[in-house]
Amino acid sequence: MDFLINNFKPILLIITILSLALLLIKHYGKIKIFLSQVKVELSKVSWSSRQELIGATGVVIVITLILTVCIGAVDSLLSVLLNYFIR
User: What is this structure's pTM?
Assistant: First the structure.
């Protein structure tokens, strides 16, 4: 019993690895078909160019900053109004 308690983590790791290996062996055909379908679908994807990616990232950053300022302003205004009505 002491052996099991002292070596719980390694035993659990071995059981997990063996279980995953058995699942991989059991479903190997399905996994192979799935991965081949993923490869086909990824070949259909229209990837953005570097310049498009940089432009889109810039737009996201600017919009995020604008929304941050707007939400902060509304939060401050509501906080002031709430404090005014509570006092």
Answer: 0.51
